[in-house]
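Q: what does this look like with heme C bound?
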Amino acid sequence: MRRPLLGLVAALVVVGAIAAALAWLLNDPKPPAGASHAERLYYAYCVTCHGVDGRGSWRAALFLIRPGDLASAAHSRPDRYLFDIIKHGGAPLGRPGMPAFGYHLSDADIEALVAYLKTLDRRQPR
Ligand code: HEC
């Protein structure tokens, strides 16, 4: 009678450990203490795909998403382009991988993000 119960408890412990490991692995990186509004927005909405340093996260690579290098794009592209691709997504510009954030972020938030992108290459890659 006690053997099956032990088996069940062991199985629950194993499943719990796997769930905890996944939760830890898939948890988004948190913004550093004292982060600016724009930086917190970037961590909340962009890090999943673009990574902390803007060069693409391993999770994006896992799903074969290639988000490019935001640090170099921020310097080589006009502000208007950066603003539009964040607000309306990449589809109208022929870059369909990038989702639109016009429903989530105000224009002021998007402008703050554009300014933040320009500071990316001054940060240490992780
Ligand atoms: C679901 C994943 C995903 C999220 C979330 C995401 N992006 Fe992107 N982004 C992409 C991909 C993929 C591309 C490249 C699109 C292409 O080339 O087709 C891209 C492209 C861009 C580009 C253009 C880069 C270039 O080289 O022209 C900018 C700027 C950009 N993203 C900014 C942001 C910002 C800011 C956020 C957060 C508000 C964000 N992205 C959130 C996937 C994402």
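The mean pLDDT is 88. The first helix runs from residue 2 to 26.
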